[in-house]
TrEMBL record:
GO terms for molecular function: ribosomal small subunit binding. It holds the Pfam family Ribosom_S30AE_C. PANTHER family: 30S RIBOSOMAL PROTEIN. Its main location: cytoplasm. InterPro entries: HPF/YfiA_ribosome-assoc, HPF_long/plastid, RHF-like, RHF/RaiA, Ribosom_S30AE_C, Ribosom_S30AE_C_sf. Coiled coil: none annotated. Belongs to the HPF/YfiA ribosome-associated protein family. Long HPF subfamily. GO terms for biological process: negative regulation of translational elongation. It is found in: Cytoplasm. This is Ribosome hibernation promoting factor. GO terms for cellular component: cytosolic small ribosomal subunit.
Length: 191
């Protein structure tokens, strides 16, 4: 029988345009504590929680949980902070349930024995054939040296949400992408 050690998430709760009261902090911890049952053998898991209130009175909650070889992340914006917290908690739990068997398979393949996601009853998840990821298309790309602005123009002309290119200044591989807010992001590699 697999010995299972339940861990408690640690929390780093920050607020933007809102004071994080003890009641709000406790509510965040209570809602995210239900995720503890999915982790084992990692005592240093920290949930980074960012609470924001906008001028239109909407409340946004962002939660990022960096794990070995995986980052769980969810965000939700509603007209009520507590509802946003509830929704983010539910999104994270759905992510974990959906991907736990894939994550476990990959960690076993890499020989990582100290990170497994479990079912809520403590049993390690078993993957079914339907849960496998299928690559349906493969593309080869030639990385052309350019600056990020040119890469954004190329991405927009192609109608894509991201574009991979060689940064002419750094000679490293970079990616520009369209964010949900319509603006652009840049990912640079450490080559």
């Amino acid at each position: 029988m697999l010995e299972r050690r339940i861990i408690m998430l640690s929390y780093n709760v920050r607020g933007e345009n809102i004071e994080v009261t003890d009641a709000l902090r406790e509510y965040v911890q209570k809602r995210l504590a239900k995720l503890d049952k999915y982790f084992e053998n990692d005592p240093e898991v920290i949930a980074h929680v960012n609470l924001k209130v906008y001028t239109d009175r909407t409340a946004k909650v962002e939660v990022t949980i960096p794990l070995p070889y995986l980052v769980l992340r969810a965000e939700e914006t509603t007209d009520d902070m507590y509802r946003s917290i509830d929704n983010v908690s539910e999104k994270l739990e759905r992510q974990i349930r959906k991907f736990k068997t894939r994550i476990n398979r990959k960690t076993r393949e890499k020989g990582i024995k100290d990170f497994l996601l479990t079912d809520s009853d403590g049993e390690e998840a078993v993957e079914t054939k339907d849960e496998q990821l299928d690559i349906v298309r493969t593309k080869q790309v030639n990385l052309k040296p350019m600056d990020p602005e040119e890469a954004i123009l190329q991405m927009d002309m192609l109608g894509h949400d991201f574009f991979i290119f060689e940064d002419a200044d750094t000679n490293g591989t970079s990616i520009v992408y369209r964010r949900q807010d319509g603006r652009y992001g840049l990912i640079e590699t450490d080559e």
